[in-house]
Amino acid sequence: MKTQLPVPLIAALLCVASQAVAEDITHGTILALDRKAGMMVMTDRTVWSLEAMKAPFSHELKNGDRVEIRYESDEEGVGEINNIQLLPPAKITTGGADISEGTVLVYDRKANLVILSDRTVWALELSKSPAPAGLKSGDRIRIEYESDEEGISSIYAIEILSN
Predict the structure, then answer these.
(1) Does residue 38 carry a pLDDT above 50?
(2) Which of 4-13, 54-63, 139-148 has the highest mean pLDDT?
(3) Helices marked H in the chain — which ranges?
(4) Helix (H) or strand (E) holding 144
(5) CB neighbour list of residue 77: distance below 8 Å, 6 or more residues apart
(6) What are the structural domain ranges in the chain?
(7) Does CATH number 2.40.50.320 belong to domain 22-162?
(8) pTM (two decimals)
(9) What per-residue string of b and e applies to 25-45 under the rule 16 or more CB within 10 Å gives b?
């Protein structure tokens, strides 16, 4: 006897499989870089372990530099950092906002939170506009936000890139 998987189960498995190989991207400003400890702290208070780098980066980074970080994440958070690229002034978004891209793991409308596949938690009460209609788990999104020494101060835009 041949058994068949239910269609919703197949769709869920495909969604999980595609999330596991998706490359996430974030842009931000370096608050503190400690090469000896192998740590980089961004102005939004995210901490990146440079030990997760696939290969050492070839350029000199310093506090205050704006960078693009490309990394892989799964259900356990950030896996490997593929690349850290210094952003030239021409690549900075309008208004100097920081940018983060990732796949939505959880969207809790009641708590007004988005959790991305890399385990970053976004409090949407900081957003100047409502979350996009139809936002759901599995959507790939881009978040433009402002950060300072205290962390994230406001979210300017949330855009669904693909679902």
Answers:
(1) yes
(2) 139-148
(3) 7-20
(4) strand 140-148
(5) 118, 119
(6) 22-162
(7) yes
(8) 0.53
(9) bbbbbbbebeeeeeebebbbe
| Residue pointed to by tokens 């021409």 | 90
Maximum distance among all Cα pairs of the chain, rounded to whole angstroms: 64
- What confidence tier does 19 reach under pLDDT thresholds 50, 70, 90? very low
Tell me the CA end-to-end span of the chain in Å, nearest whole number: 36
Q: Which residues pair with 53 in a beta bridge?
A: 81
Q: What is the pLDDT of residue 52?
A: 82
pLDDT tens track for 84-107 = 888 865 344 445 568 888 899 889
- Phi/psi for 110 (5° steps) reads -65, -45
What is the rounded (10 degree) CA torsion for 56, 18, 117, 48? 0
How far is 11 from 66, CA to CA, in rounded Å? 38
How crowded is residue 53: how many other Cβ atoms within 10 Å of its Cβ? 17
